[in-house]
Design a protein that fits this description.
It is built from 16 helices and 23 strands. The chain is of the alpha+beta class and 608 residues long. The protein has three domains: 7-97; 133-183 and 256-370 and 541-607, FAD/NAD(P)-binding domain, CATH 3.50.50; 373-537, Succinate dehydrogenase/fumarate reductase flavoprotein, catalytic domain (Flavocytochrome C3, Chain A, domain 1). The strands form six sheets. Strands 6, 7, 11, 12, 13, 14, 22 and 23 form an eight-stranded mixed beta sheet that branches. Strands 17-18-20-19 form a four-stranded antiparallel beta sheet. It has a three-stranded antiparallel beta sheet with strand order 1-2-3, covered by helices on one side. Strand 6, helix 3 and strand 7 form a beta-alpha-beta unit. The radius of gyration is 26 Å and the shape is globular. The protein starts with 6 loop residues before the first strand and ends with a helix. One of its GO terms (cellular component) is membrane. It is an enzyme of class 1 (oxidoreductase). One of its GO terms (biological process) is steroid metabolic process. It catalyses: dihydrourocanate + A = urocanate + AH2. GO terms for molecular function: FMN binding; steroid dehydrogenase activity, acting on the CH-CH group of donors.
């Protein structure tokens, strides 16, 4: 083995969304003895957790095989890459640092539990296992797994009801995906009445049933709509701040969207709900992720959870899954039927479908294939860094790749849908694309300039994107024939498609898909562009079957005792596509399900 040269080494660790942190790594006597961040970090934050906990493991075991920290995959990898770079600079053999001396308390060191119910699939059996080593045991009445929108609503309600409650959250902060939520649905609220807005509830419910093709149990919608005003009044009473009510950029059929202060729940909802939960005596364990469920005597009795110090056992009389859906788990997204090639994730990396997998290990009713993903389009060559891609003014879910006065073609060079289908539902922009092998968008410079007219430097952004062409996803040409050659679609078909489309434009009538006349702009004057439309996922909605008490149910619609579900892990009122035309209904469901799961769990606990 090569000898490490002693000294102090300065390296840079890369983090999430392009952030970096400088490190000083000291080597002495052929060992790494210090890893010191050269940056002030927020006490108790995820970054501090990574750069204090993991260096201890590296130094103690002289290994790069360290534990994972939920929600910190980018920072963890950045740290390991920086240490590896230091070892190489010091003349060491990097293979000697891959000695697999991992912590003895990791969740992988588990024994098989002999279940008294069948396990649905081997893939989920790990969620029904008992760890070898448990460092601590905790007792509580009500356990909430996840501290996003629904988890916080459940926590506050449980605190108001005087329940001994514990919330565990795999991140080192509360909010999860909920921080990026912009607003919440409500009908006939005080804000609406003050603004002179009145909508008949039954019209909203009827429209949702129609858009869901009458495939859902409408009583879930009745409950949600009828509870919506009371839920908003309750939130305001807890300190949540709302700013205005409207139709969310004109995308909603009714003005029912109540905006959070500052435009995001991270400012108007999360801090106030966390503060209220603290005031009510709710306990929180951050940096703690559920690893397996405790099931005995035909009921759920809590979970085993991973902390930085090891595995703990949490005994609970009732458990609520509020883990935020499956939006960052490619295997589960593929299970829904979505392709994941070139998929851009807008969700938190920690959003891996833990609640769904726990429920499936208990043979819960599997609704994943019928549940919608908040799936949109993006163009890989255009700027797309970060979780806020969905609101990007050029590459976002309401801009260039979302459709409109452009042409979409499939792998055969033929149109296949009304390109302005987002008019009816923003999420429709990705639905028909799922039926193609690949989809390309054709537009002209004039069309691009009109779509991006309010974006400074938009022309320069496009020019640079064409030049760099990340993912070979964007081409510019003087003729349609040349476009066909660049993407290898039948030239004859593409030329015929554009010729026919231009005829529709001049006649003011789309004879194939009835796109609005004002959206049929001729593709005649170059330069011409063609871009591949890849998937961009914001969040998953649903996956686990439940009843109206938000109890998890099995295939026979019987409850699994002691197990509740809320937020994006549930949402029984949707099928396949999120009806965003009722803006904020997912957030309304999060609050409603969190509150009422808590209320119903209290009643259940009282029967034990």
């Amino acid at each position: 083995m090569s000898e490490l040269k002693s000294g102090k080494y300065r390296v840079i660790a890369k983090e999430y969304e392009g952030e970096t942190i400088p490190l000083e790594i000291e080597i002495e006597n052929n060992k790494i003895i210090k890893i010191t961040p050269q940056k002030k970090m927020i006490p108790g934050g995820l970054e501090e957790t990574v750069f204090t906990h993991l260096p201890k493991q590296i130094i103690e075991n002289q290994t790069l095989e360290v534990d994972a920290i939920s929600g910190a995959s980018h920072s963890r990898q950045g740290l390991l890459d920086a240490v590896q770079e230091t070892v190489l600079q010091a003349g060491g053999d990097i293979n000697s640092f891959h000695n697999f001396q991992t912590s003895k308390n990791t969740a992988e060191k588990l024994n098989t539990l002999k279940p008294d119910v069948d396990i649905r699939e081997d893939a989920y059996s790990i969620w029904r296992k008992i760890p070898e080593n448990v460092s601590k045991e905790i007792n509580t009445d009500f356990l909430i797994i996840g501290a996003g929108i629904s988890g916080l609503a459940a926590a506050v309600q449980a605190g108001l009801d005087g329940m001994n409650t514990l919330v565990i959250e795999k991140n080192s902060f509360v909010a999860g995906n909920g921080g990026g939520v912009e607003g919440i649905f409500g009908i006939n609220t005080k804000m609406q009445k003050s603004a002179g807005i009145h909508v008949q509830k039954e019209k909203i419910i009827a429209k949702e049933a129609e858009m869901g093709q009458y495939r859902v149990d409408g009583s879930f919608w009745v409950d949600l709509v009828n509870n919506s005003a009371d839920n908003i009044d309750w939130l305001v009473k807890q300190g949540v701040q709302l700013s205005k009510v409207d139709d969310y950029h004109g995308t909603c059929m009714f003005p029912t969207f109540h905006w959070y202060k500052g435009g995001f729940a991270s400012e108007g909802y999360v801090p106030f709900m966390k503060k209220r939960a603290d005031e009510l005596g709710v306990n929180f364990l951050l940096g703690t992720s559920a690893k397996s469920v405790i099931f005995d005597e035909n009921r759920v009795k809590g979970v085993y959870a991973q902390t930085a110090e090891g595995i703990i056992k949490i005994n609970a009389k009732a458990t609520l899954l509020a883990t935020g859906g499956v939006g960052h788990n490619p295997e589960l997204i593929e299970k829904q039927g979505w392709p994941t090639k070139n998929l851009h994730y807008c969700s938190m990396p920690s959003n891996t479908g833990d609640g769904y997998q726990i429920a499936m290990s208990l043979r819960a009713k599997d609704m994943l294939r019928e549940s919608p993903e908040f799936m949109m389009n993006y163009i890989q060559a255009l700027p797309h860094e970060g979780v806020h891609l969905y609101i990007d003014p050029i590459n976002g879910f309401m801009s260039l790749p979302s459709g409109g006065p452009v042409v979409w073609i499939n792998q055969n060079g033929k149109r296949f849908v009304n390109e302005n289908v987002k008019k009816y539902n923003l999420l429709y922009q990705r639905m028909a694309i799922g039926a193609t092998k690949v989809t390309y968008q054709i537009f002209t410079q004039k069309i691009y300039d009109e779509i991006t007219k309010n974006v400074s430097n938009a022309k320069a952004v496009l020019a640079e994107a064409v030049e760099k062409n990340e993912g070979k996803s964007l081409y510019k040409s003087a003729t349609i024939e040349e476009l066909a050659q660049k993407i290898d679609v039948p030239k004859k078909n593409l030329v015929a498609t554009i010729k026919k489309y231009n005829k529709f434009a001049h006649n003011g009538r789309d004879e194939e898909f009835a796109k609005e006349a004002e959206m049929i702009i001729p593709i005649e004057e170059g330069p011409f562009y063609i871009a591949r439309l890849d998937p961009s996922n914001l969040i998953g909605i649903g996956g686990v079957g439940s009843n109206q008490k938000f109890e998890v149910i099995d295939d026979d619609f019987e409850r699994i005792n002691g197990l509740y579900i809320s937020g994006m892990d549930s949402a029984m009122q949707y099928r396949n596509v999120y009806t965003i035309t009722l803006g904020g209904s997912a957030c309304a469901h999060n609050v409603n399900s969190g509150r009422h799961a808590s209320i119903n769990a209290k009643s259940y606990i009282e029967t034990l």
